[in-house]
Amino acid sequence: MRPWSDRRARGGDARLKAAGASCRLRGVAGREAREAGVERETGREGELFLPFDPGQAGDATLAFIGHLETPWRKGDCPRNLTEARARGGRFVVHLDPAYRAGLEGLSAGMAVILIYWMAAARRDLIRLHPPHRAEGAGSFALRAPARPNPLALGVVRVLAVEPAARWLVVDACDAHDGTPLVDIKPWLAQVDIPPDGPGEAAAAVARRDDPARG
């Protein structure tokens, strides 16, 4: 299944017009909404929409390098990798022919970061209220797929690599079958694990700026 692998994530040029309100707030009464120029939306109380579609900004383009093969479909997909691992299945990362050489250096047992494009997610929802949370939060404080740029990432373990066939098998994935793949990066413990707290982070910065203090 390759519904997205030969497409480009392109946004058309668009001017962002003043909207009268910086966001559209769900739950505003009809009369108040009309007076404020706020469009009513159906959905959860307290969710906020941007007055424009970030996908139309035209700031950049993406080249999808392949797609993900998973057992998941709309309405039947784990919320995260922990659930995906618990449920199990076959998870394969397929690359397009032009990117085959990029697999060189990957081997079974390595941890990698998959970056993929959640094509069906809304891009104008900036504050969400997930059903499993008592209160809502901004999209940048959540792992939900709805966000201005619907990029998702997963840290997974490589189980097998077949460069000639342009695929690798990984231990789990929490995306729908056919999800476009944007990038693969190695996960490195010495780089990708943050310090334990603000004090340690500050000390690390001090050591970097003044090696004599280290």
Walk me through this protein's architecture.
With 214 residues, the protein is of the alpha+beta class. It has two domains: 17-51, no CATH class; 57-192, Elongation Factor Tu (Ef-tu), domain 3 (Beta Barrel). The protein is built from four helices and twelve strands, in the order ββαβββαβββββββαα. The protein has helices at 30-36, 81-87, 189-192, 198-209; strands spanning 8-10, 24-25, 48-49, 61-63, 66-69, 91-95, 111-117, 125-128, 137-138, 151-162, 167-170, 180-186. The strands form three sheets. A six-stranded antiparallel beta barrel has the order 5-6-11-10-7-12. Strands 2-3-8-9 form a four-stranded antiparallel sheet, with no helix packed on it. A hairpin with a 4-residue loop joins strand 10 (151-162) and strand 11 (167-170). The protein is globular and about 50 Å long. Residues 1-40 have low confidence and may be disordered.
